[in-house]
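User: Run a structure prediction on this.
Assistant: Running it now.
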Amino acid sequence: MAGIVKTWNHKNFNINFNLTEITDLNGDATITADSEFWEFVEGQNDTVERHLQGNNLLTVTLPMMATSSQLDVFALADEADRRLGAGPFPFTAFNTDGNYKLIGTATVMSIERPTRTKTAPSRNVTLKIVATAEFNGM
């Protein structure tokens, strides 16, 4: 549609882990599907079959500020999950402008350890998400 201008505002993309809004990002958060929507197989007779994949597993990488107290939210959840089996934890990611929504449960896969540098680098938190619902937008 010609003549329509839309604006992306990163402040309208909200990420929540275990009922805590994640705001202390030091870079771009990424959400990556662990598989494609479809898998294709070509037979010896040049016939092609396609198979719909579940595509419910996602990997989320959150580059957190090195001094963020929100790192404790992930660390405590990880400890509770490993010691008590408390996970997985609620996870949502919404673009309030309307074109992306993700609802699921998250497991903390890793929290990057700090490094000694003059400037505070980001510490990546990696989550594995089992999507209950995902809308990629139009």
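Residues 70-84 form the longest helix (15 residues).
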